[in-house]
Known about the structure:
- This protein has a domain at 27-84.
- The chain has 3 helices and no strands.
- It has helices at residues 5-40, 44-63, 69-84.
- The protein is elongated.
- It starts with a helix and ends with a helix.
Amino acid sequence: MANIKSQKKRALTNAKANLKNSSEKSRLKTAIKKVNAAVTGSDKEAAVKAFNEANALLDKAAASHLKHKNYVARQKARLAKAVASLG
Length: 87
C-alpha cells in the first residue's frame, strides 16, 4: 500500500473506475450475446430489438474510450450482417 496521500487516493479512484469499466464491458458483452442468440433462434423481431440496444452500448463504449472505435465498428458490422441474414 502506498504511503503518499495522493497515491492512496489514486488507488481508490482506480479501483472505483475498474469496477465501473468491468460492469460496462460485461453489459456490452451480454448485449452482443443476446443479438447472436436471437439470430441463432431465427427470431427477427427480438434480434432487431437486441441489435438496437447493442448498437447504443457500443457507441457509448467508443465515446468513453472503453473500447477502440475500430472494435466497435467491426462488432456493429458483424451484428448488422447477422441480423440482415434473417431476411
